[in-house]
Design a protein that fits this description.
By secondary structure, this protein is α/β, with parallel strands linked by helices. It has twelve helices and twelve strands. The strands form three sheets. Strands 1-7-6-5-4-2-3 form a seven-stranded mixed sheet, with helices on both faces. A three-stranded antiparallel sheet has the order 10-12-11, covered by helices on one side.
Length: 454
């Protein structure tokens, strides 16, 4: 206390309002032995229900996917787990090669030229992409879709505000959810650093005007940033084919469990332009050879982050990364291969659309709310049924089913609407269970038994 210049411990908390401070002793239990603690914690954990116990139709940024056993087996190896991140890169050849393979496969998947070896998540990748675009163009405005994931929008604002970046939302077509290109043409100008879209969108529909949006952005000297779900790229055109400058996204669906919401794995790629590459955050792993070309090795080609160079020259304050998550994704992508990616995308699309059609047949339910092609996720509206999403989800849980995300507060204009997610792990029987349970709930038969539903 004397060293840091305070007279009481309370001074450490001067910035915290009095109303938030605890004014009574903590109610801590008496000490327990190791065995007693283990038994107590196991009892608490047994109250949880996981996607292994009940069908889970919740996605919205962190999705239930199958992780092959070999992925976990490889990433649990001590030489990968303990390497964490290559601070002495030249002696970490194994980890560097694994990250190089991750970068190479993401390049192929997105049809981009350069990929860094991961960001924290999709949201932080968006924030970094926005700041990167403003550094490259010298402009301070980013156009984003109105139907963006709210958490990504908030994270973007956190990155943008200190840098003086202004974000403006583009309105959508009320019929199909697509970005209104007339609104885009009215808002884009020589002040626009970048136009950002998500494909598939947060609400699951596929943006069909990507080439027109790309042309409009480039016609005004702005960069075109595309956010993707990599599991869709086995069946959708990669962003590189419609001239994206920067591609970001979330690689959690590739080899990484949901883990209560993290860690996640942000994708970050760009086209081959040194003016762009040198503004990319994080680190890039490259492959080189000896002078006589007889042997090859791996090295850090660029590391424009503050922990490796002088802070004032850094493009980012990212001071860690998701190296092990990237290795997991690399293993999963290698297992899938091109055909596997196509089959994965087709399976997800078939199952999600079957669920969407099945639910749409339920009386007084609208699924989806937009007339567009959907991938993995879709909206379900309960307004005509006269029940709130919260009520429906509670009753679904009583039937051992976890429903979709309640987006009625995020987008009040949609009324009582939930965002449902269906992936390759959902069986036809589970989809039928969901539809039967919803039918019973909306018809006032909330006591539908889980056993009856299979």
């Amino acid at each position: 206390m004397q060293e840091i210049g305070i007279k009481s411990i309370d001074e450490l908390y001067a910035d915290i309002s009095q109303k938030y401070r605890l004014k009574k002793p903590l109610n801590l239990p008496h000490a327990l032995s190791e065995f007693e603690v283990k038994r107590h914690v196991e009892a608490l954990l047994s109250k949880n229900k996981t996607c292994n116990d009940i069908p889970v139709f919740l996605g919205a940024g962190c999705w239930p996917h199958y992780v092959p056993a070999v992925v976990r087996e490889i990433v649990q190896r001590s030489e990968l787990v303990t390497s964490y991140t290559p601070y002495q890169p030249e002696i970490s050849q194994g980890m560097l090669q694994a990250l190089f393979e991750y970068q190479s496969m993401i390049c192929e998947l997105t049809d981009m030229d350069i990929v860094n070896c991961s960001m924290y998540d999709w949201a932080s990748a968006l924030g970094e992409a926005a700041r990167m675009a403003t550094r490259i163009t010298g402009r301070k405005e980013i156009l984003i879709p109105k139907l963006i994931h709210p958490e990504r929008a908030v994270t973007l604002q956190v990155y943008a505000e200190p840098a003086g970046i202004v974000t403006e939302k583009l309105v959508y077509d009320k019929e199909n959810g697509q970005i209104n290109t007339d609104d885009l043409k009215g808002k884009i100008s020589n002040k626009t650093a970048a136009v950002y879209i998500e494909n598939p969108s947060y609400l699951g529909f596929i943006e069909e005007q990507v080439k027109e949006i790309s042309r409009e952005a480039h016609a005004h000297g702005a960069l075109f940033i595309v956010g993707v779900d990599p599991t869709s790229l086995g069946i959708l055109k990669p962003p590189g084919e419609y001239d994206a400058d920067i591609v970001i996204g979330e690689a959690q669906p590739l080899g990484n469990f949901m883990n209560f919401g993290g860690p996640l794995l942000g994708i970050f790629a760009c086209r081959d332009d040194m003016n762009i590459i040198r503004q990319m955050p994080g680190r890039i792993i490259g492959m080189t050879t000896t002078q006589d070309s007889s042997k090859h090795g791996f090295c850090m080609t660029l590391q424009t982050r503050e922990q490796h160079i002088r802070r004032e020259k850094a493009t980012s304050n990212i001071c860690s990364n998701e190296a092990l998550c990237a290795v997991a994704s690399a293993v999963h992508m290698a297992l899938l291969g091109p055909e596997g990616f196509r089959e994965l995308g087709e399976t997800i699309m078939y199952k999600a659309n079957y669920a969407m059609q099945r639910i749409s047949k339920i009386s007084r339910v609208k699924a989806p709310i937009f007339n567009s092609t959907h991938f993995k996720e879709f909206t379900v509206n309960f307004d005509e049924a006269g029940q709130s999403v919260e009520e429906v989800n509670k009753k679904l849980l009583q039937n051992q089913i976890h429903g979709g995300k309640n987006i009625s507060e995020e987008f009040p204009e949609f009324g009582e609407t939930a965002l449902f997610c269906v992936t390759e792990i959902h069986s036809k029987n589970e989809i039928e269970r969901l539809a039967e349970a919803l039918t019973g709930i909306l018809e006032g038969k909330s006591d539908v038994q889980a056993s009856k539903l299979g």
